[in-house]
Amino acid sequence: MNLKPSTALRNEYQQISMLAKASGEPVIITNKGEADLVVMSMEAYEEREKMLEHRASVLEAEFSRLAGAPTFSVDEVRSRLAEKYAHGKVSG
Q: How many Å apart are CA 4 and CA 13, to the nearest integer?
């Protein structure tokens, strides 16, 4: 974890930006010794957002399963996919 005082954000923006990009980790900006802001590269932010969206979809699927939504075994899924691929092929 990288900690920087708030004055560094103003005085050392380029260094903080390079640190966030190079490390891929958030940089915590402190104000009067207390954590105040988090700065991260755009790439790290987008990756984090994808991970959170994925977790949310897994959680939603788990809630559906627990609520009684139908589930499929691996063999059933493979069979259904094979059927879809077989019907989707163009003979020629």
A: 11
Decide: 9 and 39 in contact? Cβ < 8 Å.
Answer: yes
Residue where the block lists tokens 């063999």: 75
pLDDT mean by block of 10 residues, the chain; 92 residues: 80 91 93 91 96 97 94 93 79 42
Site of tokens 């974890």: 1
Rounded (5°) CA angle 32-10-15: 105
The DSSP letter of residue 35 is: E
pLDDT for the residue numbered 8: 82
Which DSSP helix (H) or strand (E) runs through 6?
Answer: helix 6-11
Tokens 């954590």 belong to residue: 35
